[in-house]
Specification:
By secondary structure, the protein is an alpha/beta fold. The strands form 3 sheets. A 7-stranded mixed sheet has the order 2-8-7-6-5-3-4, sandwiched between helices. Strands 9-10-12 form a 3-stranded antiparallel sheet. Bound molecules: 4'-deoxy-4'-aminopyridoxal-5'-phosphate.
């Protein structure tokens, strides 16, 4: 018996590697040389890194000189937080790679960690943040669990008016919503290659021209002395190729949103007790957090897995831990809703048939009739 092909609906955890990224990585892997070397081989490596920088800059409308490659968004977030701040303000909906280093740095340096209020719809009230020099406000662009979008542009205006520094974790946004670093008013922005179809273990911190931030890693002159260590050239090449391809994803965003919306409508029809988290909020087009009180997200994820679907319970990074997601708790969802919430995240490769099959599996798992075509 041949089993049905698996359906991957967990793009927010990690998007499948794009063919363009794979090809660019394989080409780079076979080339000798160190990008810091002056010989032809070295210069070729340097050109690969700089072409990738151009592509990543174009994806977010930044200048290439503002893009610094890192090992991923966890490093980028840690770096942005690591300056000697007096106050760091962030909400509980931020990713753990913001919350944990922020709390640790605050405890170690005696700087103040200030919680920002979150509405029931997951929207952060940044205007209550303290202001003035020495203050860092962190505001994610889109939430990885719910897809809720924050008004980063308005926060940028607020930060400029109040003399605060603004960092945004934009990991989930590229290719899904337009990003315009040049006009956002943010000072630093984290990106991650594997969320846009590049390799895992590569990312960037976009640092606005004129923004002063000491390196996190020293001991080498790479990345214009901003991030020491020989560049991961193949991964950076893959990141660049993925960034170039991801720009075109914006054209498919409306189709992805139509798929996501029809998935949600079908789930609500099949199980009227289901709750779509933050359904009325401005959200990413691809993300759906679906709860069915009385069920357990962990069990559901296993049931879907056995049926051939990859979905997740809350954030992939925190799965394996028992307990409700900090994001859903911050939104004051009832514990029985939060405990049952699974995340379905689509990509531009997701088809109508994938969504129909998911809804059929949902009905099957919850004891309903099989879905009509
Ligand atoms: N921020 C957000 C919102 C994320 O979803 C993730 C990945 N789960 C990260 C940061 C961390 O990114 P990376 O895997 O590149 O370290």
């Amino acid at each position: 018996m041949t089993s049905a092909p698996r359906k991957y609906l967990d793009y927010n955890a990690s998007a499948p590697l794009r063919a363009e990224a794979r090809a660019a990585m394989l080409r780079a892997l076979d080339l000798p040389g160190n990008p810091s070397s002056v010989h032809a081989e070295g210069r070729h490596q340097r050109a690969i890194v700089d072409d990738a920088r151009d592509a990543v800059a174009a994806l977010v409308n930044a200048r290439p000189s503002e893009v610094v490659f890192t090992s991923g968004a966890t490093e980028s977030n840690t770096w942005a937080l690591s300056a000697p701040w007096t106050r760091v303000a962030f909400a509980d909906v931020e990713h753990v790679s913001v919350r944990e280093p922020a709390a640790q740095i605050a405890a170690a340096r005696g700087c103040e960690a200030i919680p920002l209020p979150v509405s029931d719809a997951g929207v952060v009230d940044f205007a209550s943040a303290p202001s003035g020099p020495g203050t860092l406000v962190v505001l994610q662009m889109a939430n990885n669990e719910t897809g809720v979008l924050q008004d980063v542009a308005r926060a940028g205006i607020w930060a400029t008016e109040h003399g605060a520094r603004l960092h945004t974790d934009a990991v989930q946004a590229p290719g899904r919503v337009k990003i315009d670093f040049a006009s956002l008013g943010v000072h630093t922005m984290s990106l991650s290659a594997h969320k846009i179809g590049g390799p895992k273990g590569a990312g960037a911190l976009v640092i606005g021209a004129g923004v002063d931030l000491d390196p996190l890693f020293t001991g080498g002159g790479q990345e214009q002395r901003r991030r020491a260590g020989t560049e991961n050239v193949a991964a950076i090449a893959g990141f660049g190729a993925a960034a170039q391809a991801a720009l075109a994803d914006l054209d498919a965003a409306a189709r992805v949103q139509r798929l996501r919306d029809s998935l949600e409508a079908d789930i609500l029809r099949a199980t009227p007790g289901a709750v779509i988290v933050a359904q009325e909020a401005a959200r990413l087009p691809n993300t759906s957090a679906i709860a069915l009180p009385g069920t357990s997200a962990e069990t559901l994820v296993i049931k879907f897995d056995l049926k051939g679907f990859a979905v997740s319970a809350g954030a992939a990074c925190s799965s394996g831990k028992v307990g409700a997601s900090h994001v859903l708790s911050a939104m004051r969802l009832k514990p029985e809703i939060a405990r049952s919430a699974i995340r379905v995240s689509l990509g531009t490769d997701t088809t109508d048939a994938d969504v129909a099959a998911f809804v059929a599996a949902w009905r099957d798992i919850h004891g309903g009739a099989s879905v009509a075509a």
